[in-house]
């Protein structure tokens, strides 16, 4: 390990990680790529090392959920007595085989490629409806008026939930307050109490939706998930509810961040916006992939060593946690040529922004479709779009990078 007097032990609470994490990522990646954090876990940052950890299901997994949280709260903390953490411990993305394998298989069997691709015409209609609502104003907050609304409306369409239901505003507000449990840190008493309450509310809503689908089946994702319960090893209503909350939240958070981060970058690099405007249909796919690489919504993710192993020759003991810096890996010059250059024609889809291995994002195809359609639509309908970079606000969240405000004008 290199001299840590030059590189302070990694701390996800550093404020610079919210405003611009990449100088810190570069320093760690180039000078101390196998790095020990003061919080008690390894930090890996080079592309090959990150990929090795995320793809290796034999040596790395999610590990002991409660033990991992006690690193932050102390040995006396009752992790599963909190609704938020109890819910997260039951989500398949936080589990290892065989439970992960069973539930993920049932989810992917319901969230089929055919079902997702069939949404494409409706996604285009929603984009048009949203921009029609504000185009004449010549200004908008693109996060609240487009980036968030598009994927929420799409996931509602997929699940068969009425977007105009009176509970929708509270459901949307509940997700970021509940999903704070994903953060690898000790939450404040208020944060944890709020997360617990929000998970209770979300569980009540989706449990009622599943009971309705069993009584009145429809052609939607919630019905498909509920009906797996008719099989011997299918989802219970409780399991289906747990899955639905995860899909609902991730289904709009990830895409909203892709769109918001992309529009921010395209304003910082106006030559790339001009290229997209000149060829929206031809460059929308590669634009989406370059946004995912350059300004990933998923900045980092954790794994636990399932046994004594090594990473790039460095020993890792069973039970030790590893933080993989996805954002650093995506800008590793050993993998990507001229990695600090934002180039929408790069076409590199081998970034790590959707994770990897058995935990590869189940909603990746939908997110890619939504992002591609959104960038093509906005470049076509609002070619004179100019984002106000000075007023852009980044969310105070280390693991998931995205904006809460993105004001724009056009002529």
Automatic annotation (TrEMBL):
Source species, domain of life? Bacteria
Q: Which Pfam families match?
A: p450
Provide this UniProt record's keywords sorted from A to Z: Heme, Iron, Metal-binding, Monooxygenase, Oxidoreductase
Fetch the SUPFAM superfamilies from UniProt: Cytochrome P450 (SSF48264)
Is the keyword Transcription regulation assigned to this protein? no
Protein family according to the UniProt entry: Belongs to the cytochrome P450 family.
Q: What is this protein called?
A: Cytochrome P450
């Amino acid at each position: 390990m290199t001299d840590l007097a030059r590189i302070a032990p990694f701390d996800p609470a550093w404020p610079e990680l919210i405003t611009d994490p990449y100088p810190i990522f570069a320093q760690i990646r180039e000078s101390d790529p196998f790095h020990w954090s003061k919080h008690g876990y390894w930090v890996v940052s080079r592309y090959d090392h990150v990929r090795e950890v995320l793809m290796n299901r034999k040596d790395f997994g999610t590990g002991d959920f409660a033990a991992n949280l006690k690193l932050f709260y102390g040995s006396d903390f009752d992790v599963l007595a909190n609704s938020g953490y109890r819910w997260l411990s039951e989500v398949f993305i936080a589990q290892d085989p065989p439970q992960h394998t069973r539930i993920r298989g049932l989810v992917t069997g319901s969230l089929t490629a055919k079902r997702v691709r069939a949404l494409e015409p409706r996604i285009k209609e929603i984009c048009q409806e949203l921009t029609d609502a504000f185009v004449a104003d010549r200004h908008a907050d693109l996060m609240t008026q487009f980036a968030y609304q598009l994927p929420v409306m799409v996931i509602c369409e997929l699940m068969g939930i009425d977007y105009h239901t009176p509970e929708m505003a509270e459901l949307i507000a509940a997700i970021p307050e509940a999903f704070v449990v994903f953060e690898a840190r000790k939450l404040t008493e208020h944060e944890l109490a709020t997360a617990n309450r929000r998970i209770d509310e979300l569980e009540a809503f989706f449990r009622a939706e599943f009971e309705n689908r069993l009584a009145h089946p429809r052609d939607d994702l919630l019905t498909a998930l509920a009906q797996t319960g008719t099989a011997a090893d299918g989802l219970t209503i409780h399991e289906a509810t747990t899955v639905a909350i995860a899909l609902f939240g991730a289904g709009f958070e990830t895409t909203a961040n892709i769109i918001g981060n992309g529009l921010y970058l395209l304003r910082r690099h106006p030559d790339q916006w001009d290229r997209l405007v000149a060829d929206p249909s031809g460059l929308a796919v590669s634009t989406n992939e370059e946004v995912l690489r350059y300004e990933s919504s998923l900045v980092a993710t954790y794994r636990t060593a399932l046994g004594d192993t090594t990473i790039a020759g460095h020993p890792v003991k069973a039970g030790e946690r590893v933080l993989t810096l996805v954002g650093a890996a995506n800008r590793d010059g050993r993998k990507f040529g001229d990695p600090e250059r934002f180039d929408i024609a790069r076409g590199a889809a081998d970034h790590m922004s959707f994770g990897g291995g058995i935990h590869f994002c189940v909603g990746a195809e939908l997110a890619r479709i939504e992002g591609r359609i959104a960038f093509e639509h906005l470049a076509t309908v609002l070619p004179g779009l100019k984002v106000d970079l000075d007023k852009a606000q980044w969310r105070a969240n280390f693991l998931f990078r995205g904006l809460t405000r993105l004001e724009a004008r056009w002529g």
